[in-house]
Prior knowledge:
The protein has 25 helices and twelve strands. It has 749 residues and is of the alpha/beta class. The chain has a domain at 54-76 and 506-568 and 607-748.
Amino acid sequence: MDKTLPLHLCHVHNFSIIINRSYAILHSIAIAFLIYYRVSFLFQETKNRTIPTLPWLLIFTFELLLSLAWLLRQAYGWRPVSRTVFPERLPGDDILPAIDVFICTADPSKEPTVEVMNTVISAMALDYPLEKLHVYLSDDGGSDVTLLGAKEAWNFARSWIPFCRRYGIKTSCPEAYFSGPGDDHGDFQCSEFKAEWRKIEKKYETFRERVTRARGEHCKVAEAAAATTNSRDHPAVIKVIQDYSNEELQEDQVEMPLLVYVSREKRPSHHHNFKAGALNVLLRVSAMMSNSPYILVLDCDMYCNDPTSARQAMCYHFDPEISPSLAFVQFPQTFRNISEDDIYDSQIRSLFKIHWHGLDGLRGPFLSGTNFYLKRAALWDSFSTQEGIDLAALKRSFGPSNEFIKALGQDYKPTFINDGESSSMLLEEAKVLASSSYENQTTWGTKVGFMYFCVLEDYLTGFVLHRKGWKSVYLNPPRPQFLGTSTTNFNDRSIQWTRCASGLVEVAISRFCPLIYGPLRLSLLQTMCYAELAFLPLLSCLPLWGFALIPQLCLLNGIPLYPEVSDPNFSIFLFIFVSSLSKSLYEILITGGRIRTWKNEWRIWMIKAVTCLSYGSLDAVLLKLGMREASFLPTNKVTDYEQFKLYEMGVFDFRAATMFLAPLATIIQVNVASIVGGVVRIMVMEDNGDQWKKMVGQIFLSFYILITNYAVIEGMIIRKDKASIPSSVTLLSAVFSVIILSLGSSILY
Ligand SMILES: O=c1ccn([C@@H]2O[C@H](COP(=O)(O)OP(=O)(O)O[C@H]3O[C@H](CO)[C@@H](O)[C@H](O)[C@H]3O)[C@@H](O)[C@H]2O)c(=O)[nH]1
Ligand SMILES: [Mn+2]
């Protein structure tokens, strides 16, 4: 290694910093004026007030909540940075540290086995010394199909890995490679390459067919048995995948990374803590076999799209200046199935394109579930690494296994050589470590390993790490290092968002509340970012319900809530509105988005707030009150081509649960009723133009809501296809609207 050349560079986005900070100052001045305007009304003498106090107070509260959310969000814009790495400057392969890859899968009926195995194969094909790469597949479904798939994947990888290495193939995921444009073969055009290519493609086809057939049979059987009880009640199964039975292969033995299948023990009497539980089992099992100092975590729906990510991450983990305080290197979640319009924001654009760069300039991005290279030792409680700690204390924390405690030593290398006697002993020990009762009376999930407290194990684990003083780094290179499958229909997306909102609010209203748990250990800006996300559901759902109903009910009843157009105060509101819209437009344009993206994002923000974020918040409150149990249903990864087509065309698919549709239809109806009712009222009852001027703000707001959500109106009235809003839902919403309109009018006065 040439010590004079850096392994990485950090670029500060100076232009964005100027824009962000000036915007933050201007916008806060406008908010201060708004607050002054609202408060001064409350100090007027009651007899001078022409407007009832309750609606005024309500709308003011919602404005304050939105302003608070806005304020917290400004922390992301404080110091955005991006990074470049130079993996070619890393030292020789012999000194690179080993890596364990953890891949989680849970349900073969929702997670197609071929896709899961593509993730496994792509991880095995990472550009890293083979003897230093170990892949662990956790199967929470405890399914034979997954085990069989893993064996088939291993067999196929025996041809695939040498092929990729010989020809420098970048797309290390075979499915993506064979269905892609076919231009990824370095400089090789020779006939030898072509012949080889054909051979491998054929092998891949065979692999694909076998796995698909097995899964088909499995799903039939599972359906017949009504439910896969096996997934909830079975002993631990750990298998080192290795199949030299094929004589032909034995002759030309290829060096392969270790592949281990792990299905932890499940018993109905034990809570299994979802993905965090699975990852903690992998942490222990892998300690018996490879105990690598670094871990790459992947979801089964996220394959490696470029084999160089490991070396890129090592540019930081290997840097002696950064490494001691660096917990993880995070890559963005990028998806292969995103359409140009992306009407449901399936790519979570603002998170990975903007906010994470902002966090990176503070002390690093949040842990994002998948695509991160994590230092194993960061997950141990700090005391475990202290000298002279006694064994009993370690056992209270990590559980009774002596072997595992030995593995906590930084330099401990297990003597796992497959098929030796000591390894069968280690394999037995690994089964004990994967048993459902192993964690009883230990601090797994509370102090060590991935956190159990809520379904968002990633957010919370990252938060706890940052709070302990660890840092993280965000790498977002031009070629996506990982590509995943995102949910691309309204129903799945809504379910996913509800789960996420529930997890966030659970943290917000717990002892982990970032505003209490963060401040002493995190910087102010970092605390603000953690709080922004945790409070996002609450701070969006309450105000958005408010803005969707209260000004409208007031319009209908002739109560003005905003200043007259001729009043200078009107410009405060106008400024805030225009400045928010322009800032988001700026952020979208500089990150390669289009005006259409901007329109879609505002719409989905409104829709999400009154559905998923509201239900998620409610769910978290019920959980807190002990009235519900936590659940983490894996998202559906089976593509429905008809639904996907609609998504690609940018047409809303309203085949979703009524609970997600009714609020939308209700709000639209209330808005239409108020505009119509309000306008008629002004025309009939008032003869001078004053009333018009007073109501412009509210008429405009309703109008804005209606045009932004025109897709809902279309789904309700104009479209007649299968994916439009069912008339039963429209009728139900009409009932709700009537109730809201009549109740609202009587309450507000
Ligand atoms: O009991 C479970 C449930 C899920 N999973 C796995 O967890 C992963 C994520 O689940 P998925 O259904 O894909 O949920 P998403 O909403 O897409 O996941 C997002 O949200 C999760 C919770 O915050 C993060 O862990 C993920 O990385 C992030 O992509 C998948 O590989 C699942 O197989 C398990 O292993 N066991
Ligand atoms: Mn997923």
